Every structure is written in structure tokens, then in C-alpha cells.
């Protein structure tokens, strides 16, 4: 039989910041290898949903499960490891360490997992090649274009072979052409790695390449079909 266990499952997530209810019962299931686009107006809770799913923040209530592991049942160490090894994060901009070169930035997650320097370096170079930015391997973020830096950030998110990649408006800070290239690289690389991808975006072209689109409104998730 086919395995129908979702890769990630967030159920009835609530999160309040002060008096702002950012999530009011949002749910999202992601199948292995699935690409889900999350759209919706600014302030509707998209980033908060991603952060809860990624284990960056804890929801006030509701559950997040990776296959059969509930995040809140794991020890802090186990949660950190799951996040490092199974989750890739790509943010809008500015997540690379400015003092490090591209290859050093991409090698970082592997070094944190105690892989040898040479092994980490080789894997990082390979990932940069896959993203088409091997030529900036020895450059620091300040010496790259925005699009190059974003593809380096994608390489860093993918270098640990995560099961799921979360990208929060990954092309938001780029011009159209650079944004399209970075996005195509992100989709191709996640598909190539067999990873699932949850991508928050205002760009309907992104939604068009996704397997499924979910729209957020006022802290709730709704499948797009239901809105039309
Ligand atoms: P989106 O990504 O869709 O723009 P967010 O998830 O960032 O929405 O935010 C949802 C709501 O929660 C907004 O009203 C935002 O101001 C608020 N919010 C998000 N994070 C915080 C925080 N750390 N502190 C206070 N309010 C927050
Ligand atoms: Mg956001």
C-alpha cells in the first residue's frame, strides 16, 4: 500500500501575540514531496504559520506532527535536531552570515551536525553547483547580487537534505528576473531532492507551479477552491 502519512501536519493552530490573534485555528497538511503555495493578505498569519510548522515558535494550542513525531512531545534537543536535519528555511533576505563566503555559509548546517570540514565543504560546493551559483562560492554576501545571495540561501536550506523546505516570500526582495530565477531554482532543487515545499508568496506565478494553493485570512487557512 502507498504510504499516505503526511510529511507535516499542523492541526488547529492558535497563536496570539499580545492582543493580536495571528493564528485562529489554522491547519495544514503537507504530503511528502508536495509543493504548497500559501497566499493571503499581509498580516493574515502566513509567517506565523510557517514558524509554527518549522518549530521556530511554539503555537499556544494545536499540534504539529512530523510523520509520527509530535513536535511538542520531543525534548528540546530532539526538536533542534529535527529542525536542523529535516527542515530547510528560506527567508526573504538577509539570512546569510555576512562575514562568511558562500561555501562557508552553505557548509554551516553540516558543521553544526559535526560533519568533517572537508565533507561539509564538498557537499556545500555540490549544492551551490545545483543552484547555479558555484561561481560565487568564494564571495561574501555583500559581493553578490540579491538573486545570487538568495540562491546561496536556498543551497544552505537544502544542504542537509531536508524533508520539507519552508520559504517565506523568498522572492519578495528581488526584482522580477532575479526573483523568477531564484524561484525556479528553489522549485527545481526541492523537487530534485524529493523534499516538500511550503512557499509563502504574493506572486501568483509561484502559486501556478505549486501542486496546491492555500489562502490565509485572519489567521485561518482555506483551500483556494473553497474561496472561489
Ligand atoms: P503575514 O506573514 O501573513 O503578513 P504574520 O504571521 O507575520 O502575517 O502576522 C500575523 C499578525 O500577527 C499580524 O497582525 C502581526 O502584526 C502579528 N505578529 C506576528 N508576529 C508578531 C510578533 N512577534 N509580535 C507581535 N505581533 C506579531
Ligand atoms: Mg509574513
Residue share in β-strands: 25-35%
The CATH topology of one domain: Rossmann fold
Q: What is the tally of helical segments?
A: 8
Low-confidence stretches: none
Please trace the helix and strand order, writing H or E for each element.
EEEHEEHEHHHEHEHEEH
Classify the helix fraction into a percent range.
25-40%
- CA-atom Rg in angstroms: 17 Å
Largest sheet: 6 strands, mixed
Distance between the termini: 34 Å
CATH superfamily of one domain: P-loop containing nucleotide triphosphate hydrolases
Principal-axis shape equals: globular
State the CATH class of one domain: Alpha Beta
Lateral strand order in the biggest sheet: 6-7-8-3-9-10
Mean pLDDT: 92
Structural class: alpha/beta
The CATH architecture of one domain would be: 3-Layer(aba) Sandwich
How many strands appear in the DSSP assignment?
10
Q: Which small molecules are bound?
A: adenosine-5'-diphosphate, magnesium ion
Description:
By secondary structure, the protein is α/β, with parallel strands linked by helices. It has a domain at 33-48 and 75-210: P-loop containing nucleotide triphosphate hydrolases (Rossmann fold). Helices cover 38% and strands 25% of the residues. It contains eight helices and ten strands. The chain has helices at 46-54, 76-86, 102-112, 117-130, 146-158, 176-193, 204-209, 224-227; strands spanning 8-17, 20-30, 35-39, 61-66, 69-70, 87-90, 164-168, 196-200, 212-217, 220-223. The protein has a six-stranded mixed beta sheet with strand order 6-7-8-3-9-10, with helices on both faces. A four-stranded antiparallel beta sheet has the order 2-1-4-5, with helices on one face. A hairpin with a 2-residue loop joins strand 9 and strand 10 (220-223). The structure holds adenosine-5'-diphosphate and magnesium ion. Residues 46-47, 168 line the site of magnesium ion. Magnesium ion binds at residues 46-47, 168.
